[in-house]
Amino acid sequence: MVAERAGTSIATVSLVVNGKDRGRVSAPIATRVRDAVEELGYVVDHAASSLARGSGDLVVLIAPDLSNPFFAEVIRGVRDTVGDRFQLVLSVTERGAQPVAADVRRFERLRPAGILVDAPAAGEAMTATVPVVLLDAPGGSEAVNYDLSPGVHDLVRHLHEQGHRRVGYLDGTSRATTFGVRRELFEQACAAAGIAVSEVTARADLTVDAAASATEHVIEAWQEDGVTAVVAAADTLAYGVLRVAGQLGIAVPGHLAVAGFDDLPSSSVTAPALTSVALPGADLGRAAALRLLATLDGIAPESASLPTHLVRRASTGA
Amino acid sequence: MVAERAGTSIATVSLVVNGKDRGRVSAPIATRVRDAVEELGYVVDHAASSLARGSGDLVVLIAPDLSNPFFAEVIRGVRDTVGDRFQLVLSVTERGAQPVAADVRRFERLRPAGILVDAPAAGEAMTATVPVVLLDAPGGSEAVNYDLSPGVHDLVRHLHEQGHRRVGYLDGTSRATTFGVRRELFEQACAAAGIAVSEVTARADLTVDAAASATEHVIEAWQEDGVTAVVAAADTLAYGVLRVAGQLGIAVPGHLAVAGFDDLPSSSVTAPALTSVALPGADLGRAAALRLLATLDGIAPESASLPTHLVRRASTGA
DNA sequence: CTGAAAGCGCTTACAG
DNA sequence: CTGAAAGCGCTTACAG
């Protein structure tokens, strides 16, 4: 239709709308085509275009839980980076489960330009016929990760300075590898610093409610065990600890110091404000998108490891 | 490849993988095809399939702000309803802006089976070549909406019973129509009940921080104006009011009652627990998805209006 | 019950 | 600089 109206061929229209007309199509014809496109409100068919070209302009981001403010940040970083060149679409897994290989498979069918997978389940081989970049998947070679070491070491040193010698750890139930790494690094750093990690263990789903109820179950045991500080694997979990402490009248940080991971925006406004190992979500999204773009442009992506640092706030007496 | 391995034709394979083989393909051949599909890990190409068929199996949900727990609920409802029949993909607008017609246009290219638009900007004509269902867009005919009346009237009656005669209203800055409706209904109901709505107005983006800082600006004026209760257009906003009241030592509900809209999961656990007009997000998502499915099946969808009700909690002295 | 063939709307060598 | 033609991987009447 457009070709007919512009008095030219379909091939020429294709060149013009794809911006490949430089030096291939004369200016007057290109203008006629653009006018026709405008008047007809023509928009290239995505399916046909993807089919002919072999892949489309979609970038898929698969994440476990979009309602988590952390992922909102990641999404922002990805979007800012892929910009107008690609169309970003999101997919959430069922009930916050970690993305698995089958999720990638399902989106491969869409022939996206690339797939980003945030916090994939451990041990899943995320290979596809399109480029895949993993976010926050320690161990994967195709991944963009945080370097948790500096943040964790700062945290442990800070706790030590504040006089804590026995701490509790509230872990997540998530299958994401990053939680294993957080815990391991933390325990190693504690051992090195002469801080004992209580044998009383607790874990919860990544919600305030779940964390609160897990905390209720172990808080007495922690107290009896001489724990003076609790570190949670995520800020959301730490909020649960804060809530229970508040309800039980346990002074924070006086009787119990609390810290988390993520440094969510709301962590500066909890009561008391939460000390946290900052994992800049937008940076992660940006780095992952850059890596994907590099791959698509045929450039060997450099492996990215994003710095982390400790944000000291009132919950640990800072 | 699959056809070759199964010793049959491409057409037959197509019938089998699309489950259209009943009475058209013999059992042994169908089995051979399925085996071949299994062994080769074959998955139908979405682009080619969409192109040949005219439309695909994608359902697109465009929403302004996925990090809002309310939308997380909506998404859950949609997903539960579209199930395996369609592939749900999400799109977030830039910086939480209300979805506009251009967003719909952009996703039309994907040839989805249908498009769901949550909280679209007011006055946008959301027409497309594929079925579009609007969520929470009062006034639109293709929309699934809440019937806010019962909830708002219960709220006003409740405030009246608690002795409030002068209230403040904290509005959202969102362009979504629903906020206008909330305010209007509330003011009408107040007028009818003999409650004055303070002229001191405040509005904020839908975040706790923004609401808190907006509240800080007007709280004194409200107090001077004799306001004894504040109603916020969303629970997220009400959290900001609660925070400021807490910081200033204003007793809730003793000196100031607070209520919101949405009844987010976290509203039962704020301090104090928040009275709220419940807008069941999952129900909205479910109703919208059902409406889309009905349209796709050629059934005239019945217009849906979802009931709302008041959840009374401690923040208004309940 | 099965398969050859047209066609979905594009893109891209290729020939002119 | 321009256009005719092949082909992307499917689906679906249609003929057998």
From TrEMBL, chains A, B:
SMART domains named in the record: HTH_LACI
Please give the InterPro entries that the UniProt record associates with this protein. Answer: HTH_LacI (IPR000843), LacI/GalR-like_sensor (IPR046335), Lambda_DNA-bd_dom_sf (IPR010982), Peripla_BP_I (IPR028082)
Q: Provide the GO MF annotations for this entry.
A: DNA binding
Q: Which residues form the HTH lacI-type domain?
A: 1-53
Keywords assigned by UniProt? DNA-binding, Transcription, Transcription regulation
Q: What is this protein called?
A: LacI family DNA-binding transcriptional regulator
Record bears the keyword Cell membrane: no
Q: Does the keyword DNA-binding apply?
A: yes
Task: Supply the Pfam families for this chain.
Answer: LacI, Peripla_BP_3
Which source organism does the UniProt entry give? Curtobacterium pusillum
CDD domains assigned: HTH_LacI, PBP1_LacI_sugar_binding-like
